[in-house]
Amino acid sequence: MDILEFLEDATKEADAFENHPIKDFSLEDQLLYLQGLALVMNADGAVHEDEKEYLRILIKSFDMDQSSLESLVEFANQPDKDTIQAFFKTYRRKPIAQLFLFDTLMMTRRDEVVHDKEMAVVNKMADQLEILKGTQKDIYDLFCFIKNKNWAESALYFSSHLLNPDHFKHLLDYHGLDMDEVLASAREFRLDRLKAAIQRKVNLEQYSWEPISYLDGSKLDPKETEITTEFLKQPLFTSELYLSLMQAKLDRGELRIEDGIAYQGSGTNVYASLKDLDLLYDQENMALYINPEILKERSDDAEGKSRKYSEELIKDITKLFGNDIDVNKPSDINKVLKPIFGSVISYGRKYGSSDFDIKFPSKQGNNINQIVLGHSGRFYNNPQRREYISSDSPALDMNIIDVLNSGRFRLMRTGKK
């Protein structure tokens, strides 16, 4: 007995995907799925043993008779139009077609050589299955990450609804990974990547800091000891972020754009006005881009810069930082600022009785329109260079995204030793 050959055979027999979604399909639909892959197998005019082995793995995963492999090879060499038409009729516009496209990519890499003819067949089948171009790219990216065992990047596709996780969970099981653990790492990875992008944009190193004092010379009691001398003028959420977020949704068919307005799906619910986000739309190429003609001018009236976002857009933005952020709860602004900058928004200090509620921190002799988080848990500013705001002064009608993009707040932190 050749032990090496025996071990190779035994390993092959153990090789199968548990809980592959197609396993729950009818035998007829399973066979059509495999016949679709068989077309890809022979796209370069040659059927390789490694490609046949991948079909064998799937056959075992579906609990089908192993003799099916021979008929699949025959079909690959002599396909018929009726079967091909039946395949597309069964899987066209079905979410499970995402997984089929993934399996075709697996098939093309089995012989370690990717032929142009193979990819031409794969792309043609993806188009015939009516898989959106954006989704095709998502699947290709996921394939590359899984192939290279880059689980943190792979997990982003399971945690952000880019793809249906139920169709790909078996891949994690196959590699001995726990979905919950992978999703947890994805949240951390996504936040780290977003933090790095915002840090590069804002560049906190360009700001100087000074000891915190208020207009009457008093000091702040809490642990923060210093404050930026100037406002954070760069908006944290920029047109680049909106473009990336919305283009992905547009590519997946979750948005449609008419007359400069992005709507959710085929309905009438407004997702965003492109003008508000400094975006334009190229209808011919279905592509968003940043309007080069618009230069942002920030008004001295911070309250007047409050923008109107749809609830869905706000939800998508804050979800990047965590699902527990309430955009209408002012104190939650520090759940965004603290992880990025290690700092918090400047506080308005309680002053005297209820007749004088909020005292503003000094700002190099110019204290106008500074937005602070009041001790009452609401946002306030001080128009006309006022030093104090009385308790009956109205709070700002701004959510945390409005404030983060206002260019009218400062950061506080514990001073460096």
From TrEMBL:
SUPFAM superfamilies annotated for this entry? Answer: TerB-like (SSF158682)
Show where the Co-chaperone DjlA N-terminal domain sits.
37-131
Which Pfam families does this chain map to?
TerB (PF05099)
Going by the entry's taxonomy, the superkingdom of the source organism is recorded as: Bacteria
Q: What is this protein called?
A: Co-chaperone DjlA N-terminal domain-containing protein
Organism of origin is Litoribrevibacter albus
